[in-house]
Amino acid sequence: MLKVRKVDPLCPDMAVIKEASDYIRHGYLVAFPTETVYGLGADSFNGDACLGVFRAKGRPPDNPLIVHIADLKELNRVARDVPDLVLRVIAKAWPGPLTLILPRSPDVPKEVTGGRDTVAVRSPAHPVALALIKSSGVPIAAPSANKSGRPSPTLAEHVVEDYINDNINIYVIDAGPTFFGVESTIIDVTKNPPVLLRPGPFTLEELRSLFNVDIAVPEFARGLGEADVVLAPGMKYRHYAPRTRLIVTECSDYSSLTRLIRDTAIDYLRKRLRIALLITKETAEALTMYPEFSDIPIIIIGYREDPYTIAASLFDSLRSLDKINVDIGIAEGIEERGIGLAVMNRLRKASGFSLVKCKS
Is residue 206 within 8 Å of 199, Cβ to Cβ? Predict the structure, then answer.
């Protein structure tokens, strides 16, 4: 059963934090907010508790969890042989939405790492998450708190939606909406040069400056295909997906993109399919001149001129699509620059790589 308790995101009630940390220490699960999305956490050193995370989510066992620590002093408990360059990066980037792939400490059970000798680690920049880890006295292993494959939760209500009918003990700490709305950036620093495994709030441009070296970007990090070996979440399997079929439109030229969205929508309308548009405020205004769009549900995903607004509302928009009874959602693609790379990674995976592109 779910137990939901509200707290202030900046000054959480420590009685709630204490109660939640008791869940962690006794091998139960806690859904808690981070600056990115809500996580579903367990004691990182309790292999059975971590298996409970996999069972609750319906998560494939080779898809690793991320270990969350509150203090740099805890790093040696979960990782080993951390290079000086990485320690310098950590000093600048943590707490923050940056996950690093490091050699695994023997103390971390292989249930956490998908059976691999590396571990994904980060320190979340959220007062509630940090307080929970400190009160629990152990690092907390946590993926996003959605059912496997579903859009990640950016509100406690999303967690409740996914687990309300399950007979599972989960303590849910409700601290309101998360800030960034997409999961942390993941970098494999066991490779030279470091490899981007999942884009996120730490942008590629920021990472190259932070590491002062080039960062390799494989195609799967752009949301184009899947990795052969899963070192971190989001590298394989369908992710972030609504139940409603989703199509992503992509075009480098904006005027051509609006025409592509219009033509794609009209094509499905002619097939007598019910559609909805997941588009930016600017594009919605551009399409108001066409009378055929007056009765089509439109979900505003943010402002094209401010892609951080798109990232923050993306998963809520995908969940909203499932609530309006249509056959297909048509989503607007954005430029792969800054956090736009993370947005396009999530959209492409959410669509199952169902893309419509401008003809070159």
Answer: no
Q: For 249-278, how does the pLDDT look when each residue is reduced to its tens digit (9 = 90+)?
A: 999 999 999 999 999 999 999 999 999 999
Q: Please give the Cα distance from 7 to 10 (Å, whole number).
A: 9
Answer yes or no: do 339 and 204 share one domain: no
Q: Are residues 218 and 295 in the same domain?
A: no
| Number of folded domains that form the chain | 2
30: containing domain: 2-222
| C-alpha span between 255 and 330 (Å, rounded) | 17
H or E segment to which residue 56 belongs = helix 47-57
Among 44-58, 73-87, 234-248, 292-306, the minimum mean pLDDT is found in 234-248
- Residues 100-133, buried b or exposed e (16+ Cβ, 10 A)? bbbebbeebbebbbbebebbbbbbbbbbbbbbbb
202 belongs to a structural domain: yes
Instruction: Identify whether residues 170 and 290 lie together within a single domain.
Output: no
Same domain, 194 and 291: no
In a domain, 237, yes or no: no
Q: Does residue 120 share a domain with residue 88?
A: yes
C-alpha 16/C-alpha 173 separation (Å) is 8
The answer on 159 and 21 residing in a single domain is yes
Q: Is residue 165 domain-shared with residue 311, that is, in the same domain?
A: no
275-279 β-sheet, strand order: 298-300, 275-279, 328-332, 245-250, 355-357
For residue 236, is it within any domain? no
Q: Identify whether the C-beta of residue 338 lies closer than 8 Å to the C-beta of residue 283.
A: no
Task: Give the rounded distance of the alpha carbon of 340 from its chain centre.
Answer: 14
Residue 239 lies in a domain: no
Q: How many whole angstroms separate alpha carbon 39 and alpha carbon 42? A: 10
Distance CA 358, CA 352 (A): 19
Predicted confidence (pLDDT) per residue in 95-115, tens digit? 999 999 999 999 999 999 999
- The side-by-side arrangement of strands in the sheet containing 170-174 is 2-6, 170-174, 29-33, 38-43, 140-142, 66-68, 118-122, 98-103, 185-188, 195-198
Residue 143 DSSP class: -
Distance between CA atoms of residues 102 and 194, nearest Å:
11
